[in-house]
Amino acid sequence: MPEPTILVVDDEQLIRWSLAERLKQEGYAVVEAGTAKEALAAAGPHLDLVLLDYKLPDSDGLRVLKQIKASDPDIPVILLTAFSSIETAVEAMKQGAYHYANKPFNLDELVLVVQKALETTALRREVRTLRASVSEPYAFGRIVGDSAEMESLRGLLQRVAASPASTVLLTGESGTGKDLAAKVIHYNSDRASKPFMNITCSALPEALLESELFGHERGAFTDARQQKTGLLESAERGTVFLDEIGEMVPALQAKLLRFLEEKAFKRVGGAADIRVDVRVIAATNRDLEEAVRVGKFREDLYYRLNVMQITLPPLREHASDVPLLVKFYLDTFNREFRKHVSGASDEALALLRGYHWPGNIRELRNAVERAMLLADGEWLTPEHFPMSVSRRVTAQAFELPQEGINLESVERQLVLQALKRTHWNQTKAAALLGLNRDQIRYRVEKFGLEKETPERE
Ligand SMILES: Nc1ncnc2c1ncn2[C@@H]1O[C@H](COP(=O)(O)OP(=O)(O)OP(=O)(O)O)[C@@H](O)[C@H]1O
Ligand SMILES: [Mg+2]
């Protein structure tokens, strides 16, 4: 690493000289300026710190401070003042000065302050780079797919990300991308530089979940030897993602509701209200309306969470995205496994498009990953995918029971199941059964099947 570069701004040549000499001894590179004009000309991204005299012949230090900070908010500026005035000091700190020192200053002390400031900036810059590399994977483009469903999902996420406070409820089957959507919202909002905290409500027993979320005071319960800060507090100005909210017990639902309404809560065992500014994103793959109906989920909390509901569609409802998703994961795993698979064959793609994906995009990702581990050639073919195998297995597994069956009624049931699974898309249902459109239409008429037909009589 090159030595840090420090700009020393002072109109008194002797002071400038003694500062520069000492800083060079400490191993820093020094740039000097005698006026505000020279200082601003010398400022730039190559600088790591500025020592700035308050009184300059052509301007005052505060104004220069403001300009330097405007172009680089991270750079530490230490203000040097000949007379100690509280107002100047306060104003300097307000403008973002790192520190101020009164003249005549002690060089040893000043060097220590410089060291400390440089360490802080280095850390801050490191955090910023790290953060950029964390949030980069969650750009809107990470939501793969060009179907109308995915287009509108991206649009919705964009709007929600831009509205900084609103509570969001993400619903959808397992593997449809609720976790991903929550992160995309957070990392594209103006909360992105603050924490994203994630807790799965079903993973912890009630008491533990409460203290994880809200924190506790010392002595709140037997094991509470120390005060603990909850997730909501730790996420200050960021986002809290409450996964599997449908599993939260009623007592906690009440506490969460109060928090959403008043932005305030009490730590377990605490009396004082704590206020924090966090965005809550809740997710569930359960039918919350149904949970409300059967009394498992508070209606008022449901309505409070439901201000902005985003439903992630199951993959079978946007199967046209399958080829793009396959390509996305092909690229991902080519990189990860250092492979050079070119793509999936037409037959493989047809198989994947026709499959009903009960595990949604997660299942597709796993299927592609597995196929790529199996493949040693350039192309992924149907044999590399488990669903072609399972189709053969089921065909063998149909075994005539001892007592015999009614073939007509079995046929009828299978046709009905295929239709329901494909939301009455006859082409897709036919594909599931190895029939063509005429063949399935014939059976729909023969059995008098309609959307309302119950699966079993
Ligand atoms: N539109 C998408 N484009 C690309 N990848 C996606 C998309 N949606 C989801 N994924 C990926 O699919 C996998 C499953 O998504 P995620 O974990 O977000 O699902 P989930 O809805 O939270 O599931 P669960 O209810 O089981 O928690 C993840 O690897 C995620 O990155
Ligand atoms: Mg999830």
Proportion of residues in extended strands: 5-15%
List the uncertain runs. Answer: none
- Ions and ligands: adenosine-5'-triphosphate, magnesium ion
The global form is: elongated
**Biggest sheet strand line-up:** 2-1-3-4-5
Class per helix and strand makeup: alpha/beta
Total of DSSP H or I helical runs spanning 4+ residues: 19
Question: How would you characterize the overall build of this protein?
Answer:
With 457 residues, this protein is of the alpha/beta class. Helix content is 48%, strand content 13%. It is built from 19 helices and 16 strands. Helix 4 links the parallel strand 4 (77-81) and strand 5. Helix 13 crosses helix 15. The longest helix is centred in the first third of the chain and has 29 residues, at 107-135. The radius of gyration is 32 Å and the shape is elongated. 30% of the residues are buried. It binds adenosine-5'-triphosphate and magnesium ion (MG). Magnesium ion (MG) is lined by residues 178-179, 243.
Task: Kindly summarize this structure in a few lines.
This protein has 457 residues and is of the alpha/beta class. The protein has 19 helices and 16 strands.
